Backbone:
């Protein structure tokens, strides 16, 4: 192709057709420029395709993490509802001055329910390392930053405050057990629950403290879950776009 164009130029010059030669040369330059622009455009398309594939991949990982967090928080809500029901049951027993018996043993230890909070922030941190600007949607990018770098940190602070007395609650419940002693057959009786535990002021106070922990933690989670739902909805829309 290059030899063909060169031959035409030489022929025009040899025939002293300078005007035609100039027109031809300009046309040839235009064709070369158009070819370069087309090549650049194709390259840009390929790069944009690669960037989009990476963006979708990272958003899909973030989506998977958010869905896992969503399930975890729903389990947390159910656990605190169960804890609140257990507290209500023992509160009713104390009000009716019921004597503790062995059939209540397993239910009593359900007052020890506590939850461990762990969020999957790995995909977001990986995206930040590679460049958060790789999320092309400005609104979604700002939403991700606000959620992971601000709202999630605030939630962790609030839930830590709501559950801060968990360990002391457990320790207090354990402290209400009777000291080890020898029975009439000279056998050691260990960790026995006193029959009057349901009327002890310490136990009644403990129930109130656990009820506050359960209600406060549940309310904190319920206020936070819509924020996960909103982010997950926007991530889904961007992936499906």
Residues:
């Amino acid at each position: 192709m290059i030899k063909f164009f060169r031959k035409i130029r030489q022929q025009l010059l040899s025939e002293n057709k300078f005007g035609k030669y100039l027109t031809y040369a300009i046309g040839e330059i235009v064709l070369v420029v158009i070819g370069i622009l087309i090549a650049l455009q194709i390259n840009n398309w390929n790069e944009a395709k690669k960037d989009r594939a990476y963006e979708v991949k990272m958003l899909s990982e973030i989506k998977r993490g958010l869905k896992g967090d969503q399930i975890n928080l729903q389990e947390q809500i159910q656990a605190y509802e169960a804890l609140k029901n257990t507290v209500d049951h023992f509160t009713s027993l104390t009000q009716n001055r019921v004597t503790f018996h062995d059939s209540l043993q397993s239910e009593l230890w359900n007052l020890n329910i506590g939850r461990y909070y762990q969020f999957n922030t790995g995909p977001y941190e990986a995206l930040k390392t590679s460049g958060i600007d790789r999320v092309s949607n400005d609104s979604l990018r700002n939403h991700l930053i606000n959620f992971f770098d601000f709202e999630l940190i605030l939630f962790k602070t609030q839930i830590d405050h709501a559950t801060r007395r968990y360990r002391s609650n457990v320790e207090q419940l354990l402290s209400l057990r009777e000291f080890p002693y020898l029975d009439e057959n000279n056998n050691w009786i260990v960790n026995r629950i006193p029959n009057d535990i349901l009327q002890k002021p310490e136990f009644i106070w403990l129930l109130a403290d656990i009820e506050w922990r359960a209600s406060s933690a549940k309310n904190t989670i319920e206020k936070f879950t819509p924020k996960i739902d909103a982010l997950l909805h926007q991530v889904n829309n961007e992936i499906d776009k």
About this structure: The first helix runs from residue 2 to 14. The chain has one domain: 2-240.
